[in-house]
Amino acid sequence: MSALKSIKSLMVIEYLLTFLVIISINFALPRMMPGDPFLHFSGAMDEVVSFHSKAQIQYFREHYGLDRPVHEQYLTYLKQLAAGDLGFSFYYKDNVSAIILRRLPWTMFLVISAMGFSIILGTILGSYSAWRRNKWQDNALYTILIIFSEMPAFLVGLALLIWLSAGLGLFPLAGAVTHFGSHNNAWEKALDILHHAALPVFTLTLARTGGIYLLVRSSLSTVLTKDYMKTARAKGLKEFRIRYVHALRNALMPLFTRVAIQLGALLGGAILVENVFSYPGIGVLMRSAVVVRDYPLIQGIFLVLAIGVMAANMLADLAYKYLDPRTRPAASGKHVTIQLPAKVQKGETS
Amino acid sequence: MLAVNELGVRYKTGNTTLTALDKISFCVKSGENLGIIGESGSGKTTLAMSLMGLIGSPHEVRGEINITGKDLMSLAEKDKKKLRWKTIAMVFQNSLDVLNPVIKVGQQIVEPLKEAEGLSEREASLETERLLALVGLERYWKDSFPHQLSGGMRQRVLLAMALSCNPRLLILDEPTSSLDAVTRKALFEMVHNLQEKIGFSMLVISHDLSTMKDLTEKMVVIYGGEIMESGLTGEIIEEPAHAYTRGLVNSSVQAFPYKDLWGIPGEAQAGVSGCAFAGRCTQALAGCGERKPYLEQVFANRKVACHRGGIIDLLHAADITKCYMMQNTVIPAVKGVTLRVRHGETVALVGRSGSGKSTLVHILAGFMHPDKGEVVFDNRVVKTNRSACEEGGIQLVLQDPFSSLSHRLTVEDALIEPLKVNKIGSFEERMARIKAALKDVQLPADELFLKRYCSTLSGGQRQRVAIARALVMKPKLLLADEITSMLDVSTQANLLRLLKGLQNSSGFAMVFITHDLHLARKISEKIIVLHHGEIIEEGSSSYVTEESCCCHTRELMEAGL
Questions:
Q1: Are B112 and A238 an interchain contact pair (Cβ–Cβ within 8 Å)?
Q2: Segment 230-289 of chain A within 8 Å of chain B by CB
Q3: pLDDT at B54 over 60
Q4: Less Cβ around it within 10 Å: N or C end of chain B?
Q5: How far is A134 from chain B (nearest CA, A)?
Q6: Contacts of A188 (CB under 8 A, 6+ apart)
């Protein structure tokens, strides 16, 4: 038991350390960028476009504490974070947390739906391929999905935008809802949101399905060669039970961890795709924050994303243990408290 | 119940085909237990898989499998599913992966029944508990996962699972491979009890003789995917008729707890056109490698697939009687002895001094004429010492190497003499042969040693030279008359291991005369006890030394201890 506890506390320390490193990098990265929140670089010729006079800039720097030494700024940043304060945006003149909270739901909406769709699609196609391993259906699916998953998401998004939205006018060009539109009821509003989200979600799903397909395909192929699959077949079970109770349950366990680990990549993809479709999520916000060197906002966004990815990893870590009975912690299962009766150990028959 | 006719399985992977089973035919009657024995890779598990109808394309299954009147081959997959587990169930070979790691044991036990009968959760749970109780497991194990069970418990779970639908035929694949002796015994008892209670037939697949002995009445021996021998289990183990079966029995510690174990030399070969065992068989003829032997009846209840009709009888002596005349007294030395030596076998002739052993051996070799009776060697009656003059005949090695080797001869002279006398080979061939023989008995074969006089050799060396002299004639039968009695124990041990090793690789038969029963059971498969010129007991070495009820044999045993 004590060993288990020490492992748990080790895990907590590990996550805390990771967190500390992340916020430090978070603090350092925007300051390492060329430029300044009050001087913008624009254009290809490195022209300095300044909207403020020297005196004004001096005033702003003092006001936001940017004139102080870096370590002092760092300490202030940590203090603010500890109090739950993400700071005040230079550009939007608003609380960073309030800005992020306004944008976050849209990104979450994209990411979660894309993840859901790609898991469903990847699992269905992956298992279809595994059942027909090395037949033409498998080969065809494999080729198609590899091609799609290797294409950059923003390129696919751009192509779709030009073709379906600009060309055929089937989908809106930008935004998450129709601006200034009036919705008669909630149902209409929901439809409008779905209409706007369709292409970004589709693009993201397309990019992520390949990886999940490959994982399910290879994992299920391995499971199919296991002895217990032979046992299940010999038992004369129905095909459905053999496939979905005996095989898929074992094959999907690695998928769970993989999805959580890939959440980071998915978020990265979402940021690019949001920019292509001008979808008002965190991604678009981040881009404009970087352009204007809005340090607190950049830090805030990075922090939220990092926490999101870390939380997903932690969740996967914990949940996997419960999914697989072999790694399930002993204390929580009722069956494990059973002691072997002496009779069984001796191998006697009753 | 189950009738298999000319079953053949070929595995196809890419462009290669591998014949796993060929022309397998056998049947299991209702209530009968049949064993399938063979070493690993002989096709046992493939056989089980094909009986369950689990070998599908691209692999090829041919022949007929008839289960309770239904032809498995002609059934659609859907109907095969109906047959599986309800009529024919299987206890799989115990491995960590044989049960699904993420499904509770209880569910796995009852799921085929639940699906077939449409039981409710509650009924299924009760049924699981009943099945667990049947195999002697507490009911709470139903909520455990496979990784929480020990090997023996997993075996019980597999058994409970196989019994869930009350099958008519139960296939047990290596039921004991991972179990300790106590658990194994308990399992056998349980299987017997269950069989009495439920009344299924069994097909036991194993490489283990004691499993066969305990679980089956009939046995089929397969090798390289073909049946080599079939018959009653007890009889096959007591007297194997096929060279392969004998190899299996000889390698089994259960059959010969005291004898040194000797495996079958060589490796199994795949895709041979002739007899599958020909490459490892010591009595194989040139024709054996060319065509397949058929399974033929050799005697009651026994079928053997061998071009030579099983292990051949090399020597047969019938009713041998010999008396010596001393003044006017007739001293009977051998009284009506009948014995048989089969190819490649070691028979120990045990008896006190004066029991007629040496006389008998001299008669067998043809050096002495019996008053009555006849010795047949290799299908020819032995009247003179002709067999001793031929290659592939009988050679005799005597007790005392000091007198059997002339001390005036060099090693070379002594060894080359039989070849010279019998005009075998050119000089170079003779030299090559004696050098090979010296190597075989682990003596140096250089000039220096060849030119040494026998008188300069030690007792152990002399005896080895004497054996080498017998070996240059490539005998089929070696008569060894107390060859180790004049040697110290260490030399004796070395010499005996050497001799058994040579026998195992070149396959000559040996009649080993000794007065030491313990030595006899260490090296021989068969023991004949001679007393006052009569055979008072004979049988397999473990039987004679373990279960003998003959008081004279007991006396010999105890005297030796």
A1: no
A2: 230-238, 241, 245-246, 249-250, 253
A3: yes
A4: C
A5: 12
A6: none
A75: confidence class by pLDDT, cuts 50, 70, 90: confident
User: B2-216, which class in CATH?
Assistant: alpha beta
CATH tag, A96-326: 1.10.3720.10
Q: Is A42 helix (H, G, I), strand (E, B) or coil?
A: strand
Could you report the per-residue pLDDT of A251-288, keeping only the tens digit for each?
Answer: 888 888 788 777 877 888 888 888 888 888 888 888 88
Q: How many CA atoms within 13 Å lie on the side-chain side of A269?
A: 28
d(CA A272, CA B462): 93
- The answer to whether B365 touches B387, Cβ cutoff 8 Å, is yes
Quick check: A325 and B143 CB within 8 A?
no
pLDDT band of residue A38 (cuts 50, 70, 90) is low
The reply to whether residue B102 touches residue A232, judged by beta carbons under 8 angstroms, is: no
pLDDT band at A29 (very low <50, low <70, confident <90, very high): confident
Question: 3-class secondary structure for B153-174?
Answer: HHHHHHHHHHHCCCCCEEEEEC
Q: How far is A11 from chain B (nearest CA, A)?
A: 26
Which residues in chain B have Cβ-Cβ distances shorter than 8 Å to A334?
A: 143
Q: What is the mean pLDDT of chain B?
A: 86
Check pLDDT > 50 for residue B397.
Answer: yes
pLDDT score of B505: 80
Residue A153 pLDDT grade (very low, low, confident, very high; cuts 50, 70, 90): confident
Residue B397, H or E segment: strand B394-397
Q: From CA B362, how far away is CA B262, in angstroms rounded?
A: 29
CB A86 within 8 A of CB A78: no
pLDDT reported for residue A49 = 56
Least reliable range by pLDDT among A21-35, B64-78, B512-526: A21-35
Alpha carbons A40 and A49: distance in angstroms, whole number: 6
Q: What is the dihedral of CA B168, B169, B170, B171, to 10 degrees?
A: -160
* CATH 3.40.50.300 location in chain B: 2-216, 314-393+473-560
A235:B147 CB<8 A: no
Q: Of A167, A179, A171, which is closest to residue A197 (Cα–Cα)?
A: A171
Q: Options 3.40.30.10, 3.40.50.300, 3.40.50.720, 3.30.70.1400; which CATH number does B314-393+473-560 get? A: 3.40.50.300
Q: Quote the tokens at residue A284.
A: 């678009």
B122, with CB counted inside 10 A (0-12, 13-18, 19+), is: exposed
B461-511: pLDDT as tens digits: 888 899 888 888 888 899 998 888 877 888 888 888 888 888 888 888 999
Q: Give dist(CA A198, CA A208) in Å, integer.
A: 15
- Say if the Cβ atoms of A350 and B136 lie within 8 Å: yes
Between A and B, how many residue pairs show a Cβ–Cβ distance under 8 A? 102
Query: Measured between beta carbons, which residues in chain A are less than 8 angstroms from residue B135?
Result: 349
Q: How many Å lie between the alpha carbon of A249 and the closest alpha carbon of chain B?
A: 8
> Is the backbone peptide bond immediately before A329 cis, with ω within 30 degrees of 0?
no
pLDDT surpasses 90 at B204: yes
